Amino acid sequence: MAIKVQGNFNLPPVSGIQADKQYEYRIACAQVLPSENGVKGEGGLDKLEQYAKEAAKHEADVIVFPEYFLTGATHDSWHAVRDTYAGNSPQSPIDPDDDPEHFLSLIGDIAKKNDIDIVAGTVVELGSHHIPHRNEEPNDDDDENETDKEHDQKLFNTVYYITRSGEIAGRYTKRRLWHPERSVLSPGHELRHEAPRTFEITTRNGKKLSAGIAVCWDLAFPETFREMFDLPPSSHSSKAPLIGPDVVFAPTCWYATDAGKKGLRWNPESEAALLDSICLTRAIENECVLAMTNIAGPPCPPDKDPNSLSEDDAIGVGRTCVCAPFAGCVGRVESGDETLLLAALDLRILQDARDIYRVRHDLRSAWSTEQAKVDSR
């Protein structure tokens, strides 16, 4: 298959800064259509492997796939996940190809084969979401009650980060669902989906980075990113800045029509404007790189009146991008076409931004002030 490639990994010269390979970070974003045939169907793992191979040919450090890439972006495809898993027993076990551990292993093999890290989009998974109350007694009964069974039938939207060695370095379950998702999916919760909000990754040149993940509508909430910050080790100065991510990966499934009729009548390009502004804003206010990969989608049909569009029309908006403070947007896909975006950054830009903007210092001051109020009560 022919893959449309946009951009390159050439870094522009910077006055007073000597080029140094160890600080070079190469990101590939695969803006592709979701696989409505499931992980093992056409357009699933086969497409993932083809795009990973192409990105590796350009010596990318990581390739990022969009939300719902492996399990489809419709309610029917999500319900199909429950149908696949629900009711399985030792007498009628699940098909190994449908087992998440199996396809994650296959993605790990692809990562190792191509020497590239993979953010595998998101997959809809069936799993428990029972949040224990602090006064709740453990259930020692071998037979789960009906409430437990209901909890075990919840569907969640999870993204995995798989390293070039085939290991799962990080995972995140989407916590802030877009409104139409809420009738089918459940939000992740830190008590049920325990995983560090940041995790360590290593570039091809051996540079270690702190990475985080946000998914689609998570981007609308600054709190999503604040959850990735923490106090520095106790050995550091009390005035040391908070520790946070160097790079955040954001798989999304965002269409031009998500504004609905009410938004579209004001501005048919409203979602493009929103994505352009919010991605750069999150990169600047958190002093990190943001790599957002959106789902691909068709353009508005030429015979259709744009004023007649609604949320039911999945019209592509594109906007897949890589942003950083000072640099701004270093690469963006303007259309909804399937495209492999290549963008590179010199990671030294992050420390320069932190030295000038000092957001992490100010966050530490605010954190200390709030803690002092709590301690004085």
Entry summary:
This protein is of the alpha/beta class and 377 residues long. The chain has a single domain, classed as Carbon-nitrogen hydrolase (Nitrilase/N-carbamoyl-D-aminoacid amidohydrolase).
CATH topology: Nitrilase/N-carbamoyl-D-aminoacid amidohydrolase
Low-confidence stretches: 89-94, 129-146
Please report the number of helical segments.
9
Q: Given this structure, which CATH class is correct? A: Alpha Beta
State the fourth-level CATH superfamily: Carbon-nitrogen hydrolase
Strand-pairing-aware structural class: alpha/beta
Share of β-strand residues: 15-25%
Keywords: Hydrolase
Biased composition (Acidic residues): 138-147
Region (Disordered): 127-150
Domain CN hydrolase: 25-347
Describe the structure.
The protein is an alpha/beta fold. It has one domain: Nitrilase/N-carbamoyl-D-aminoacid amidohydrolase (4-Layer Sandwich), CATH 3.60.110. Helices cover 26% and strands 20% of the residues. It has helices spanning 45-57, 75-85, 100-114, 146-151, 222-226, 260-264, 270-285, 348-357, 359-375, and strands at residues 5-7, 24-31, 62-64, 117-126, 155-162, 168-173, 198-202, 208-213, 247-251, 289-293, 321-324, 328-332, 339-346. A seven-stranded mixed beta sheet has the order 1-13-2-3-4-5-6. Helix 5 (222-226) links the parallel strand 8 and strand 9 (247-251). Helix 1 packs parallel to helix 3. It is globular. The termini are far apart. Residues 89-94 and 129-146 have low confidence and may be disordered. One of its GO terms (molecular function) is hydrolase activity, acting on carbon-nitrogen (but not peptide) bonds, in linear amides. It comes from Meira miltonrushii. Pfam families: CN_hydrolase.
